[in-house]
Amino acid sequence: VVKTSLETGASLVDVETITLYISTGPVKKLLPNVVGKALDDAKNALIAAGFENVVPNYVDSSKPAGTVIGQSPADFSEAVAVNTEITLDVAKGPTTATKMLSIDDLPTNMTDMYTVKIYVLRDGVYVLDSTVVVNPQDTSIEIEVTGSGEQTYKVEFPDKSYVEKKVDFSK
Description:
This protein has 171 residues and is mainly beta. The protein is 6% helix and 43% strand. It is built from 1 helix and 13 strands.
């Protein structure tokens, strides 16, 4: 009961009917799904929908920094009280690291210095990353690479044969 029709100080004898006003609780609305949006866009969408209690939770992720990668509550089919705390998991962005890429299976039939091309897989396409000159006496080489998450490197030899190496920069 949030109020009554009975005036303060009135006697029950003087009144035939008392009206009780009962709250149905806080206003509820459908929660928009803001996963995949930039944090500012996500907050604006939630505020526009009536949800003002928005709390960012920054998490490690390979997604671009500032991207919403999760939200709680996450049931978008049921109405939620507008005063509910909405937690947005926001990507800190990929962290880069430097690792050594070891190539042990060099060609053994080379007599002169030769070039090895190093490609990195980006968006499903191999892009030339660097070129390394190799001494024919070397049986292996190590190349310093920088990246984030897990990346695949293709090492191409002069005869167009190649090896693929995966590097996990998160470990």
